[in-house]
Amino acid sequence: MQRKVRKPPALYDLTTLQRDANRLLGFTAQQTLDYLQSLYEKKLCTYPRTDSRYLTGDMADSLPVLVNLVANAMPFRKGIAITCDPQTVINDKKVTDHHAVIPTRNLKDADLSALPAGEKAVLELVALRLLCAVAQPHIYSETVVTAECAGGEFTAKGKTVKHPGWKALENAYRAKMKDAEPKKVDTEKALPELTEGQILSVSAAIVKEGKSSPPQHFTDVIFCERKEWIGIEERSSA
Fold first, then answer.
1. How would you list the strands of the sheet with 152-163, edge to edge?
2. Cβ atoms 39, 45 nearer than 8 A
3. pTM
4. Between residues 233 and 5, which one has the greater pLDDT?
5. How high does pLDDT run on average in the chain?
6. CA dihedral 66, 82, 90, 6 (to 10 degrees)
7. Cα–Cα distance for residue pair 16/98, rounded to 1 Å
8. 12 catalytic, yes or no?
9. Which residues, including other chains, have CB under 8 Å from residue 130's CB and lie 6 or more apart?
């Protein structure tokens, strides 16, 4: 058994937001930028065209107030305790012209139900990331069991959550998505108590056929993620 800790994810810059909006919501990179730009103009989100995933030190004291305000505006956090550790998202050295994308305090007086569906979805994704980024780590234990049967060796892996931390918010958000994929949510069950050398009975055995799939085509979001790398390649080949 091994104890593992998954730290909270970093805040969004434009590219990572575009990536998640494409993966979770099916938006193109341009759609996400357009929705975020509109939210910025409505003063519900901060400046969209940023490459930073951190906030500046002068925002630390006001961050807990913003986090609680955002949490109260988001339906998916109902019943989940909210914590805020500003130091996980504060790093002046990693902020250039603009800090990470986060919601603003204007959420408090805004009628979010009146927003267009795309804008509302992007706003909820940005809010989720803020709440996760300042939440407590996700702690779990992982057990790997190796068993021998008929000359073959088989491996089983089980997971037991010790403290859900930021994962509780992420799973609650995905559970409310109509097109949420169950495989994306942590549903692994703990293995039963086992000891070395224990003899187990085989209740069933199934052979499954499968085939590998070719890599998926590049999307505009992937190009957004790799634009700096592409730029380096272009310069080096000149």
1. 2-6, 138-149, 152-163
2. yes
3. 0.79
4. 5
5. 85
6. -150
7. 15
8. no
9. 11, 66, 67, 70, 102, 103
Given 47, 54, 140, 173, the catalytic residue: 47
What are the structure tokens assigned to 132, written together? 């996760």
Task: Indicate the residue type of 238.
Answer: A
Q: Return the H-helix or E-strand segment holding 155.
A: strand 152-163
**What string of H, E and C letters represents the secondary structure of 163-230?**
ECCCHHHHHHHHHCCCCCCHHHCCCCCCCCCCCCCCCCCCCCCCCCCCCCCCCCCCCHHHHHHCHHHH
Round to whole Å and give the CA distance between 111 and 73.
10
CA–CA dist 25, 29 (Å, integer): 11
Q: Assess contact for 37 and 104: CB atoms under 8 A.
A: no
Residue 21 DSSP one-character state: I
In whole angstroms, give the CA distance from residue 168 to residue 222.
28
Give the span between the Cα atoms of 238 and 223, in whole angstroms: 20
Tokens of 127: 């809010």
| pLDDT tens profile 33-77 | 999 999 999 999 999 999 999 999 999 999 999 999 999 999 999
User: Please, is 224 exposed, middle or buried when counting C-beta atoms within 10 Å of its C-beta (0-12, 13-18, 19+)?
Assistant: buried
In single-letter form, the type of residue at position 201 comes to S
DSSP-assigned letter for residue 95: -
SS3 162: strand
CA-to-CA distance for 89 and 9, rounded, in angstroms?
A: 9
